[in-house]
């Protein structure tokens, strides 16, 4: 697969589906077009479902023999996630990343598409239609936004690291304890918005890092490749790269450079080791 064969056709498909299925419903949703999945913060709309349905058809037509792992389809049938470990090329799709923002009528949502094969990310497309931002990346060919190459750069050493982390509304007590490792001098953490747009902010050098503790591939695949191709780094606290198929030691991070990633991972590692350390007096 060559970048020149897929980058533009996929971009055109994403733009077209967003124009047809997402933007006309932005700020126009009826009450019955929004439902809950796992809880009050886990929403799905008719735009999510229809956009994923259309993207599934268009992306598999662009690459015969490929399959789709999409957020809404996996919600209906969790066994579909296993395709990430299969032999076929996989399109990883989040039709509306930031559904809560979309439902509120805010502009901070995006459509995320990534292409992977045998667990390796090959292509990435991030489109924020309400903002007009479209970024893409291809392994070995860089990351791009509006025709300009993205470069993460390095954080300003005179200011605290700006880090977006998993929103408290979506975290368990154990995950909150793990993310509390960010509350130290030299780090300025804040809850994240739509994951795909936070990754884009890192790739643009506007945010120093992200730290997440959930693994859903559709939230991370596009952003991870975008950050890496812009010069950034990623990894889990256990010292391994993030794996699309799951089983990662979380929290994990994607950052503007390797030093920043390592700094945050060291905080998570120390917190994990402290939590697992035995308490009380040593045995006699």
From TrEMBL:
This is inositol-phosphate phosphatase. It comes from Streptomyces chisholmiae. It comes from the Bacteria. It catalyses: a myo-inositol phosphate + H2O = myo-inositol + phosphate. SUPFAM superfamilies: Carbohydrate phosphatase. Keywords: Hydrolase, Magnesium, Metal-binding. The lineage of its organism: Bacteria, Bacillati, Actinomycetota, Actinomycetes, Kitasatosporales. Pfam families: Inositol_P. Its EC number is 3.1.3.25. It is an enzyme of class 3 (hydrolase). PROSITE patterns: IMP_1, IMP_2. The keyword Acyltransferase does not apply.
